[in-house]
Amino acid sequence: MSREERDGRISVSPPAGLAEAQAKRRDAGDLMKQDLITCTCVVVVVAITGWVLYIGRPVLVPIAFAIITSYVIYGLAEILRRVPHVGKRIRAGVRYWSAAALILVAAWLATELLLSDTDRMLAVAPKYEATLLALLAKLTALLHLETEASWTAFRRELLAVVNVQALLTSLLGSLSSLMATTLVVFLYTAFFMVEMGRFRRKLSAVMRGKADMEPVIDAINSKIGTYLALKALLGVVLGILSWICMQLVGLEFAPLLAVLIVMLNFVPYAGSLISVAFPALLAALQFGQWNEPIVLLISLSAINFVMGNVLDPWLMAGSLNLSPAVILMSLAAWTAIWGIAGAFLAVPGTVALTIIFSAFSSTRPLALLLTKDDVASPAE
């Protein structure tokens, strides 16, 4: 008789199926805990990154714009290289510095245009303010509200809130700060261009044996550079066509508004709306009637529609692969962190993150969620 039988104990092993089910449950629980830890770490890292970006925006925004400017120069240099019969004969350094000189000349012309229109903007501010009140008076007469007692109080409150001259004075007062920031951006850009080749060699030496980052860097440079360069060229075309429409209508400050439209072309969705609405609003304030604003609204809407839905997708078919919903969410997130500057940096920053995520197997699912590519259903 065995010892277990003498003690009255019987050893019974669990069935094989039950043991296997218990092991699967343990594995599933461990996997769930690991996923929970991973999600928590991701949320913490994202929160810390957002806080650092928000706190450090006085320093980081000029650096980010310098990087974007460097990518525009890179993209323009690549476009120059593709010019038939001539592009490949031009040395790379000549292409890069020619593109940089072109951007510098464009920035100087825009600054000169803004400075030359400063006094004229302040002079017409009272006229625009009076026209605004006249248009509101016509609107209230149309709606039979001109005899209401609230109209006088409403006009008084409107003048207290919407002071066109005060708004223009405040806007022009920040011009010196904007010019200083622009100078810092160009200085950063010059140093980035000088250090471009050295940085690639240093990064390759540091990452040797860990990860092959050169293809990732090349993909980021190619996609973002091409996107920004084409956006800049399309913005110039859009600005010229918009300037022609505004000039035909007789709108004041048409060249300055054309420059603003070129810059707003880098802001997805919201930039097109402002490019149409702002000139139409100024036309209403200048002319005091609705004929010119309506003509301008229709013409600018048609131009933006053709540019945004025909030329833009045709030229950028391979340079941008983001979901429209992701573009809107990134626009909202970057604007909340960096303000107006974030609106300009939303798309390039998201494209860079998508390329980096797609380079590593652990983050490749995130890259798939950011793109507009579809996946086959299980039934297929």
TrEMBL record:
It is found in: Membrane. Keywords: Membrane, Transmembrane, Transmembrane helix. The keyword ATP-binding does not apply. It is a multi-pass membrane protein. Its main location: membrane. GO terms for biological process: transmembrane transport. The chain crosses the membrane at residues 35-54, 60-80, 92-111, 171-194, 228-250, 256-282, 294-311, 331-360. One of its GO terms (cellular component) is membrane. It comes from the Bacteria. InterPro entries: AI-2E-like (IPR002549). Residues 1-20 are annotated as: Disordered. Belongs to the autoinducer-2 exporter (AI-2E) (TC 2.A.86) family. This is Predicted PurR-regulated permease PerM.
